[in-house]
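does this look right to u?? glutathione version
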Amino acid sequence: MSSNITLYTWPTPNGIKASITLEELGLPYKVEGIDISSNRQKEEWFLKINPNGRIPAILDGSQRVFESGAVMQYLVEKYDTDRKISYAPGTPEHVEQTSWLMFQMGGLGPMQGQANHFRLFAGVRSDYGIKRYTDETKRLFSVLESRLKDSPYLAGSKYTIADIANFSWVRAAPITIEIDLSEFPSLNKWVDNIEQRAAVQKGVDVPQTGRTQEQKAELFRNLRAKVDALDNSDKH
Ligand SMILES: N[C@@H](CCC(=O)N[C@@H](CS)C(=O)NCC(=O)O)C(=O)O
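got this back:
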């Protein structure tokens, strides 16, 4: 199918949802790397594509789509005519797919994102903030665990965008906020299976930064150490 897609992204948990979806669909796309540490996502030209100034976003011709969940839904509605990674609208499985996608967008992403903030990026050390958001992330992982104990994928028997969205966050938890996935055996197995997919291996590295897994782990270790060295704000 013909397309004229540009993906504005960086290899973060939200960014890779879009690149994995494009890779799974086998769609050609151009990549515009938006290094979020340089604040390129706040530049005037980019705010015309995503007024929220965050990645990912796409342009498909003149159509802009922002918010990773909306990008995924747009791509499957328009291009997944073979239903490779989505269920047909109007089916019970499609409702389930949307439910788990929204679970990620409204729950897991925001909570794990805050856990990342307090554990890796905060300018003060807040044990309260770290515990609150890490505990909430673990609670959400246990919800995923309870679903995946009974179902191979979140929406049913097929791997869909609901899996891609949740996977993109869960896979990062061990190296960022040190959640041990062996506490969640079905979730752990599901992550390992999805990680093997060729499209996922390509999609998690868009645009390519050249960083190895060990280099990424080292980066997060250093960020945690920096926060640990700060004064504990909870005491003030
Ligand atoms: N709800 C948005 C969240 C996007 C988001 O927070 N993206 C992060 C990267 S994972 C970002 O652009 N951060 C840079 C910033 O906040 O300026 C989505 O799902 O697309």
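The longest helix spans residues 92-121. idk if thats expected tbh
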